[in-house]
């Protein structure tokens, strides 16, 4: 993908508006292009600035109660003067206006409660798709690990200086899930640690990044394209284990991560 084309798509990539294939192409390009990476970071900084609390004025909680009280009071007046309303065009217009106003208030309140939830679910589904895509890429020749070792004391220090956090690394050979190594990866618009384990002939990728409340749903399971995922969060970290291993054993492995 050419840099000119890539730059034009960065806004859509940052907002999660691109299809999965295009997103993966941009991710691969970002790994080797410093200019596009710098441009993306600039857009991320600008986006965070616009979302800052200093630029957002939240409606007071008393607004809904005040509007409802006003509408209720006016409705009581209308019910008490039905005989007048029957002969007053002005009053009939007022009733119609109040009905429209009530519908608008209801729509605003519904959007305020529902839209954030839908946005979170969309973000969660996008991350799940990215995780599966990264898992599939890792199964290609020479893509599984950047550091190959079954010794956690070799794998954990390898991430030093490469991430803005220190991922927990443990070997579960005694439980039947030996550590194979680790690598750098990119999920949810940030660099993450990918720890690689094995269960018989099944490869398990564990994607790790700092827990961010509201980013994705914790403690859940999902399947995409025949691959199973178990999400969990503990000790300030978020974990996503993905494999073609059956869900029961993958759940067992995920529980080991939290012990």
- Oligomerization status of the protein chains: single chain
Q: Give the averaged pLDDT, no decimals.
A: 79
Poorly predicted residue ranges: 114-121
Shape: elongated
**Continuous helix count:** 8
The portion of residues forming beta strands comes to 15-25%
Helix content: 40-55%
Instruction: Count every beta strand, where a strand is a DSSP E run of 2 or more residues.
Output: 7
Number of domains: 2
Order of strands across the biggest sheet? Answer: 1-2-3-4-7-6-5
Computed structural class: alpha+beta
Amino-to-carboxy terminus distance: 43 Å
The major beta sheet can be summarized as: 7 strands, antiparallel
CATH superfamily of the largest domain: MucB/RseB, C-terminal domain
Question: What's the level 1 CATH class of the largest domain?
Answer: Alpha Beta
CATH architecture of the largest domain: 2-Layer Sandwich
Order of helices and strands: HHHHHHEHEEEEEEH
- C-alpha Rg (nearest Å): 26 Å
Do you know the CATH topology of the largest domain?
Phosphorylase Kinase, domain 1
Give a short overview.
With 259 residues, the chain is α+β, with helices and mostly antiparallel strands. The chain is 51% helix and 19% strand.
């Amino acid at each position: 993908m050419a840099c000119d084309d890539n730059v034009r798509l960065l806004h859509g990539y940052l907002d999660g508006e691109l299809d999965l294939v295009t997103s993966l192409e941009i991710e691969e390009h970002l790994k080797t292009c410093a200019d596009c990476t710098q441009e993306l970071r600039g857009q991320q900084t600008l986006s965070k600035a616009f979302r800052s609390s200093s630029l957002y004025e939240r409606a007071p909680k008393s607004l809904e109660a005040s509007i409802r009280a006003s509408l209720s009071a006016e409705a009581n007046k209308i019910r008490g003067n039905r005989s007048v309303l029957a002969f007053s065009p002005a009053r009939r217009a007022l009733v119609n206006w109040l009905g429209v106003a009530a519908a608008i208030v209801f729509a605003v309140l519904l959007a305020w409660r529902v839209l954030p939830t839908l946005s979170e679910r969309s973000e969660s589904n996008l991350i799940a798709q990215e995780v599966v895509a990264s898992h599939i890429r890792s199964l290609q020749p020479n893509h599984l690990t950047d550091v190959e070792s079954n010794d956690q004391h070799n794998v954990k220090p390898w991430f030093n200086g490469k991430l803005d956090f220190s991922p927990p690394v443990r070997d579960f050979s005694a439980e039947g899930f030996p550590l194979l190594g680790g690598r750098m990866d990119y999920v949810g618009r940030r660099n993450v640690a990918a720890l690689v384990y094995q269960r018989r002939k099944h490869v398990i990728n564990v994607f790790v990044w700092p827990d961010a409340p509201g980013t994705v749903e914790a403690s859940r399971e999902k399947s995409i394209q025949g691959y199973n995922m178990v999400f969990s969060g503990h000790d300030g970290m978020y974990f996503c284990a993905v494999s073609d291993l059956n869900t029961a054993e993958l759940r067992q492995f995920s529980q080991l991560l939290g012990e």
